[in-house]
Specification:
Radius of gyration: 16 Å
CATH class: Alpha Beta
Protein name: Type II toxin-antitoxin system VapC family toxin
Organism: Desmonostoc muscorum LEGE 12446
Largest sheet: 3 strands, parallel
Shape: globular
Number of strands: 3
InterPro entries: PIN-like_dom_sf (IPR029060)
Structural class: mainly alpha
Helix content: 55-70%
Strand order of the largest sheet: 1-2-3
Length: 107
C-alpha cells in the first residue's frame, strides 16, 4: 500500500482549503494519508505561540479556536512516530550535511 505523508506546509495548505492541495488530498484514500509527529509539534508550537501573543479577547478566542481545530484535524489522520529508526536516519542525514531545515530532515 502506498502511503502519502503530508509535511507541515502541505497539511497547512490543506487546512486552509487551498484548492489544488485540497483536490489532491481529497483524492487519496484516508487510510493512505499520514503526517508526522514532527508536523504535529510544529503546528502546536505555532498555535501556542499565537495564544501567547494574543493582544485582545478577539485574537485570543480565535487562537484557541485554531488550536481546537488543529487538535480535531490530527484526530482524523494517521500520525507517524519519531522512533529510534527515525532518529538513526536523521543522524545519518545530518552526518551527510544535507542542506535542509532540521524539522524537514526529521520528517
Amino acid at each position: 500500500m502506498k502511503l502519502w505523508i503530508l509535511d507541515t506546509d502541505t497539511l497547512s495548505l490543506f487546512q486552509r482549503a487551498h484548492p489544488l492541495v485540497s483536490q489532491r488530498v481529497i483524492a487519496i484514500p484516508t487510510e493512505q494519508l499520514a503526517t508526522t509527529v514532527i508536523t504535529f509539534e510544529e503546528q502546536m508550537y505555532g498555535r501556542m505561540n499565537r495564544i501567547r501573543r494574543a493582544d485582545s479577547q478577539e485574537s485570543l478566542v480565535f487562537a484557541y479556536m485554531q488550536l481546537n481545530e488543529t487538535l480535531k484535524d490530527f484526530k482524523t489522520i494517521n500520525v507517524l512516530d519519531f522512533n529510534q529508526e527515525s532518529a538513526n536516519c536523521y543522524a545519518e542525514l545530518r552526518r551527510q550535511k544535507i542542506r535542509i531545515g532540521t524539522q524537514d530532515l526529521r520528517i
